[in-house]
């Protein structure tokens, strides 16, 4: 079983920084949004506390937060203000925000050769999906059912164009991944049925692909492209199918909706 998870908290939070006069945020929420620190947006507790609680519920015992060199607020919160008791917390520094594959390398440099999970700091994943992915120490990804993601209205159909679409074979192995397909995707098509929300099981082979992958057209080192490179070299990526929702905290308009959904949720990091 995989017991270590790396949370990617280094991103710039560009969408969250954008002004939105219709989003009803508190002063504290606005301050975190202005700084692009999505994981620290307070919803009674910082959003990351809910993410870490779900990881602990799934059996994760070590959490590596991938942060930037200037993210003192995150480090201070988890080392002084509210240190976790259910997981061991450590930090990996990604010097520049140059993509998720580079963030995985930063995490691997801290973790070593053991397999580990990788997930976003701005997504709250169901513990059952995390537990199923962590059950085997092999490379894998959780494929979320599009219809389940859309069922509660927290994720709009058009947002699917911003997520990676997964092509899965009959043995539940990943064939290909299409990152942010944009206007080329019909969100209602069968091709778009299975979606990645960036919840991965990473092995040394995938770390090697992250080190080898070139910059993307966007100028970043991207994990989906590294996965594609690994598949082209024969790496098997198992797929865990999940028929459940994910709380996505990407923009200011998401904050009130996510806060309403998490209200009353037990937090125990």
The CATH fourth-level homologous superfamily: Spore Coat Polysaccharide Biosynthesis Protein SpsA, Chain A
Shape: globular
Give the terminus-to-terminus CA distance: 20 Å
Largest sheet: 9 strands, mixed
Overall mean pLDDT: 90
Low-confidence parts lasting 5 or more residues at pLDDT below 50?
none
- If you compute it from the alpha carbons, what radius of gyration comes out, rounded to the nearest whole angstrom? 17 Å
Can you write the helix and strand succession as a string? EHHEEHEHEHEEHEHEEEHHEEH
Name given to the CATH architecture: Alpha-Beta Complex
Describe this structure in a few short sentences.
With 269 residues, this protein is an alpha/beta fold. 32% of the residues lie in helices and 22% in strands.
Blueprint (SSEs and pairs):
Layout: E1 4-8, H1 14-17, H2 27-34, E2 42-43, E3 45-46, H3 47-57, E4 62-67, H4 72-81, E5 88-93, H5 100-111, E6 116-120, E7 123-124, H6 127-134, E8 140-145, H7 146-151, E9 164-168, E10 174-178, E11 194-202, H8 204-212, H9 223-232, E12 238-242, E13 247-248, H10 254-262
Helix pairs in contact: 5-8, 5-9, 8-9
């Amino acid at each position: 079983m995989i017991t270590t998870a790396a949370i990617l908290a280094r991103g710039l939070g560009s969408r969250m920084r954008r002004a939105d006069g219709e989003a009803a945020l508190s002063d504290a929420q606005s301050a975190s949004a202005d700084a692009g620190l999505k994981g620290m947006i307070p919803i009674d507790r910082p959003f990351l506390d809910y993410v870490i609680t779900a990881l602990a519920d799934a059996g994760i015992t070590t959490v590596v937060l991938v942060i930037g060199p200037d993210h003192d607020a995150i480090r201070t919160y988890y080392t002084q203000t509210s240190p976790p008791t259910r997981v061991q917390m450590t930090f990996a520094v990604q010097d520049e925000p140059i993509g998720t594959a580079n963030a995985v390398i930063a995490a691997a440099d801290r973790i070593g050769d053991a397999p580990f999970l990788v997930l976003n700091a701005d997504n709250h994943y169901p513990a059952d999906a995390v537990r199923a992915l962590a059950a085997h120490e092999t490379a894998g990804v959780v494929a979320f059912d599009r219809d389940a993601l859309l069922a509660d209205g927290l994720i709009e159909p058009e947002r699917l164009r911003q997520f990676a679409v997964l092509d899965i074979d009959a043995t539940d192995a990943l064939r290909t991944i299409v990152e942010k397909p944009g206007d080329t995707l019909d969100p209602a098509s069968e091709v778009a049925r299975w979606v990645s929300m960036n919840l991965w099981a990473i092995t040394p082979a995938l770390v090697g692909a992250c080190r080898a992958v070139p910059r993307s057209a966007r100028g970043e080192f991207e994990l989906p492209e590294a996965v594609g490179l690994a598949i082209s070299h024969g790496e098997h990526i198992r797929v865990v199918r999940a028929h459940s929702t994910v709380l996505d905290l990407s923009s200011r308009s998401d904050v009130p909706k996510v806060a309403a959904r998490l209200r009353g949720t037990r937090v125990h990091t």
